[in-house]
Specification:
With about 400 residues, this protein is of the alpha+beta class. Helices cover about 50% and strands about 10% of the residues. It folds into three domains: about 5-85, Double Stranded RNA Binding Domain (2-Layer Sandwich); about 90-190, Orthogonal Bundle (DNA polymerase, domain 1), CATH 1.10.150; about 205-395, hpI Integrase, Chain A. The protein has helices at about 5-10, 60-75, 80-85, 95-105, 115-130, 140-150, 155-175, 175-190, 210-215, 220-235, 235-240, 275-285, 305-315, 325-335, 340-345, 355-360, 365-380, 390-395, and strands spanning about 15-20, 25-30, 35-45, 45-55, 250, 255, 270. The strands form two sheets. The protein has a four-stranded antiparallel beta sheet with strand order 1-2-3-4. The protein has a three-stranded antiparallel beta sheet with strand order 5-6-7. About 30% of the residues are buried.
């Protein structure tokens, strides 16, 4: 343990001379008031001194680390000056490191081009202006917190994504990234205020779902239809909006979502209830030329997430699109006797590593089919099966 403390340093900075911390580390204060760190190391009978930087640029903890590096290098017969020189990777600008990180990710088949483009766009908008020209070695928790603070409460989800991208870039770019990141994330969080809590109505109480589905059946447009399938299958919005006809097998009543479209990057089979099959069967009669999407926009493109959100907003529904997955999970826990892992499999959730090997033996498909059939019946009329036609929903006044 070193002798110097921050209080000692503040006092020593006013007293010219050499102030010893221990293990060869010395704070040298000149008559002019300028202070710098020196590592005084004795090896093979020879005492040598190495400058470690000014007190203003090098804090006490870093000075101790540098002194230890110098001593270790001498003992090992290496040049101590090389030990103090930052690796080339550490002197890259954050912008260079971030572009290198995204380029490396381009070879990862699990990351879509759209996701990489979105990441680059977010970095350009929110990270590069503040951090882009800074060297990787100089970016700390204070710099990251200052960077994301302007949007931390106004755009919380975006801010969290930007913070994650910054930290992942540093983990990629720094030689000590794996160790460095363990303390960086919590340190950034400590410097930021609490984000506003999400609304209390993110998930709809399952008892209120049949009434909402009844109202939704009268909504016009592709967004309302896609939302209905998302609810009936408990699927994520992106999985439904990106669904193509080559994924749908109406003979066996199975929707197979390929791994590249799944959050966990694993193929996911969705058992389709009779109600979901009815909806998809009628959608099949309205296929749009030039696209294989089940729910295309008017231009034949994939619907945006806001399309489904707007349906709920127009209905003044007190919930979010993603919240219906929580609604399903609550219903499964309280209204069925199926084990929890069956509901988790229906949601395509990853499972803890401790039980992953056992989990992978089955995807509980038959049990999930039984559960999804019961869910659809409940969603439409509280349990009594009534298939709601959708042709009227597409017609215009």
């Amino acid at each position: 343990m070193g002798r110097l403390t921050q209080a000692h340093i503040r006092a020593a900075a006013k007293k010219p001379g050499k102030h010893h911390d221990g293990d060869g580390l010395i704070l040298f204060v000149r008559e002019s008031g300028k202070a710098s760190w020196i590592a005084r190391i004795q090896n093979d009978g020879t005492r040598r001194e190495f400058g470690l930087g000014s007190l203003r640029a090098v804090p006490l903890g870093e000075a101790r680390e540098k002194a230890a590096l110098v001593k270790a290098a001498l003992v090992a017969g290496r040049d101590p000056h090389l030990a103090l020189r930052p690796p080339k990777e550490m002197t890259r600008t954050f912008r260079e490191a971030a572009l290198g990180f995204l380029e490396a990710k381009a070879a990862d088949a699990k990351i879509s081009d759209a996701k990489r483009k979105q990441s680059l766009s977010q970095l350009k908008a929110y990270a590069f202006p503040a951090l882009g020209k800074l060297q990787v070695q100089s970016i700390d928790a204070d710099a990251i917190a200052q960077c994301v603070r302007p949007i931390w409460t106004s755009k919380p989800e975006t801010a969290r994504k930007v913070r994650s991208l910054i930290i992942r870039t540093l983990r990629f770019a720094r030689p000590d990234g794996a160790l460095f990141i363990g303390t960086l994330g919590p340190a950034v969080a400590d410097r930021l205020p609490a984000q506003p809590k999400r609304g209390n109505f993110e998930a709809l109480p399952y008892a209120e779902l049949p009434a909402l589905m009844d109202r939704l059946a009268n909504k016009r447009g592709m967004g309302a239809l896609a939302l209905r399938l998302a609810i009936l299958t408990a699927a994520r919005s992106g999985e439904v909006r990106g669904a193509t006809w080559n994924e749908i097998d109406l003979d066996s009543n199975v929707w197979t979502v390929p791994a590249e479209r799944m959050k966990a990057r694993r193929l996911h089979r969705v058992p389709l209830s009779p109600e979901a099959v009815e909806l998809l069967g009628q959608m099949a009669t309205m296929k749009q030329a030039g696209t294989d999407l089940v729910f295309p926009s008017g231009a034949g493109k994939q619907l945006s997430n806001m399309t489904l959100t707007k349906v709920l907003r127009d209905m003044e529904a007190p919930c979010t699109v993603h919240g219906f997955r929580s609604t399903f999970r609550d219903w499964a826990a309280e209204q069925t006797s199926q084990p929890g892992e069956v509901a988790e499999a229906a949601l395509a959730h990853t499972v803890p590593k401790a039980v992953e090997a056992a989990y992978r033996r089955t995807d509980f498909f038959d049990k999930r089919r039984e559960m999804m059939n019961a869910w659809a019946k409940f969603a439409l009329d509280g349990g009594e099966s009534t298939v709601v036609p959708i042709r009227a929903a597409l017609s215009c006044d």
